[in-house]
Amino acid sequence: MKTATVNINNCVKVKLNEFGLAVMKSQREKLQALAPSMPDFTPPAVDSEGYSKFQIWELMQTFGPVLYLGGELPFDSEINFTNVAITEVAE
User: Fold this and answer.
1) Model-level pTM?
2) Which of 6, 36, 68, 87 has the highest CB neighbour number within 10 Å of its CB?
3) Residue 15: which of 74, 81, 84 has the closest Cα?
């Protein structure tokens, strides 16, 4: 069996959808209400395959409140992990 070791600071890549972008925009607007000088929402950068990059903790913090069984997903269900150490372990 193989196992992957990841750190909460590692990066992952996801394909955001319109709902995901709306969640991010809404969060920014709430922050702007507290700190009006904050810049307007800018969507995250997207690579040539349509993926945006987040640290794992950031992805959890941003989308955790809207992720639940049966709920609308803010990004495609496939998450790409980058720079992970994969090791063989005994079963």
Assistant:
1) 0.87
2) 6
3) 74
| pLDDT tens for each residue of 8-44 | 999 999 999 999 999 999 999 999 999 999 899 999 9
Relative to beta strand 52-55, strand 11-14 is antiparallel
56, 9 Cβ separation under 8 angstroms: yes
CA distance 6 to 60: 14
